[in-house]
Design brief:
Blueprint (H helix, E strand, L loop, with lengths): L1 H4 L5 H27 L4 H34 L4
Length: 79
């Protein structure tokens, strides 16, 4: 299976996985912030936590996917 992925850019795959994980973890952490703060500003903090976690893990997935695919492209060069 890994041979089929060689030479392809995996940044999009990494971004999709990062966003999916970010949505799940972001919802859980936002809920925890709402429960812990339990005030009027709790919704603002929960929204901020949700967006930071979601977009942060999406960007991290993009960078990791790009690095992995770049590493595989360099391995394919003839020596």
């Amino acid at each position: 299976m890994l041979d089929e992925l060689r030479g392809r850019n995996l940044a999009h795959v990494g971004c999709t996985l990062g966003l999916t994980l970010g949505l799940i973890l972001g919802l859980i952490l936002a809920f925890l912030v709402l429960v812990i703060l339990n005030s009027n500003s709790g919704a603002n903090w929960a929204t901020l936590v949700f967006f930071v976690v979601t977009f942060g893990l999406g960007a991290l997935g993009w960078v990791v996917g790009d690095r992995v695919s770049r590493h595989w492209r360099e391995d394919d060069t003839p020596r």
